[in-house]
Amino acid sequence: MASSVSVLLLLCMAAAVASAQLSPTFYDTSCPNALSTIKSAVTAAVNKENRMGASLLRLHFHDCFVQGCDASVLLDSGGEQGALPNAGSLRGFDVIANIKAQVEADCKQTVSCADILAVAARDSVVAGFVRWQTSRRPGQLHLHPIIEFDLVLVQLGGPSWTVPLGRRDSTTGSASLANSDLPPPFFNLSDLIGAFSNKGFSATEMVALSGAHTIGQAQCKNFRDHIYNDTNINSGFASSLKANCPQPTGSGDGNLAPLDTTTPYVFDNAYYSNLLNQKGLLHSDQELFNGGSTDNTVRNFASNSAAFSSAFAAAMVKMGNLSPLTGSQGQIRLTCSKAN
């Protein structure tokens, strides 16, 4: 017990030191257009594919949980991209590469890939995208097909937060740490609490960060066991997923389903309402509301969107402070996919 407390204290001290070394104004003089460049590129990417918001958010999480927020996940040769939690599912590398190229053209070797990831994750939560929406009222006769639809700007609508900056990039990655530190979808509640506690997060912060599953999609292989074998799932919900996710392993493994079927492209608290109705897509999702210690937190976030938004934003800032490289540590990569 004493050793675990000591580890937690060390993590908290390290986070405090990192926070002191990072600053939201870090690039105000050296690259004043960096943040606006990142925001514009993220908005364009989400507008092109609304799923990209969730992909960029996940990319930042999978970076920070493995040897800290150092952009190690972006390294082609670092091994992390091929780790079990990442292989065939991490996305958004091309978007980050495009942002890096734009920033480099303006400020050479100044803005780190780790900072770009952190800012892109924030911007992806609040980004908007354009979609066609019918303007014809129910029962109205068909008009000209071109004028029956309107372009509508849809906001993911998530909370924003101030991103401390000044991270530097690692020169290596770790597949072994990615395999051991990233919580898989079959974890139970005690596993989840332990995995996040190892990074200095409380159970409440873990539930808040899990709310990122209010957007995005998961592959059939990651929720197959839950819909066929678990009993803590709404039977109608499970049945609706089985057609696109056959039971035999290897059949439709990559088929996708939204993590939040209620509002899949809106960053809101519907994820928690789904859990109350036993409609969590992943086993690990539904574990948050399954008669355990986090049930009341889920109820609170389901009924109070402001409480969720505040907790999520605070937890994201804390996650962004996980073991960053600062000062003369690491490097500022010229290209995010490889060390200089």
Question: What report would you give on this structure?
Answer:
The longest helix has 20 residues, at 2-21. The protein is built from 14 helices and four strands. 45% of the residues lie in helices and 6% in strands. It is mainly α. It is globular. Mean pLDDT is 90; it is low at 2-9 and 141-147. The strands form two sheets. It has a two-stranded antiparallel ribbon. Strands 3-4 form a two-stranded antiparallel sheet. Helix 9 crosses helix 10 (235-242) and helix 13 (295-303) crosses helix 14. Residues 21-340 form the Plant heme peroxidase family profile domain. Belongs to the peroxidase family. Classical plant (class III) peroxidase subfamily. Belongs to the peroxidase family. Ascorbate peroxidase subfamily.
